[in-house]
User: Fold this.
Amino acid sequence: MVFFSLIRTFAPYKEQYANIFMDAIKKIFAGKLLDIKAIKLQPTDPFTWASGWKSPIYTDNRKTLGFPDVRSFVKLELCHAIQERFPEAEAVAGVATGAIAQGALVADELGLPYAYVRPKPKDHGMGNQVEGELTKGAKVIVVEDLISTGGSSLKAVAALREYGVEVIGMVASFTYGFPVAEEAFREAGVQLITLSDYNAVLEQAAETGYIKAEEIEVLKEWRKDPSVWGK
Assistant:
């Protein structure tokens, strides 16, 4: 990690090594998520999501807040991603509820204004959906904790655009990498950068013996069509 920080200070190397850094960070963070059980893999005893989908993976990135070293890692790496990919950012917006804390930590570290976005407007008071104060026309980077289908994340983007700011991109802790989400982000014109992803978790889990080699294919099959997997 010290090596990464040193190289980042040399502008000529930034573009050349950006993808190398991200690939390394994805595996490091995947290991941390597995270690603290923020991600659990159970190919033979799947979870049931709120949507009703059967899934061999369960993710709860809120657990990172309870581990100071991991919490700091997430904060600093999200900040690095913003500084490297979205240096023009003028404000930060977190997506409720999972990314409210992470977004606030990032905004504080970068010294930028902060707001968070509710899933829908309040039904009382001022009826706000965007909580906080953002300058109209400001270039805003959105912080999210988990990308599944992308629906709730992009609703937050739509709310921010309606509020009157320019969303320049989104950074997130983790993505399942569903094709439907990738297409949704393309259609919305939102660049997404994540600290880790499903592939990195599978690689790390296999290398450390967390899962057996024969379970890899089961996990890969699930992502192809999670809505019917396990039925």
Q: What stands out?
A: Confidence is low (pLDDT under 50) at residues 1-8. The chain is about 45% helix and 20% strand. Helices lie at 2-8, 11-35, 68-85, 100-110, 151-163, 179-188, 198-208, 215-224.
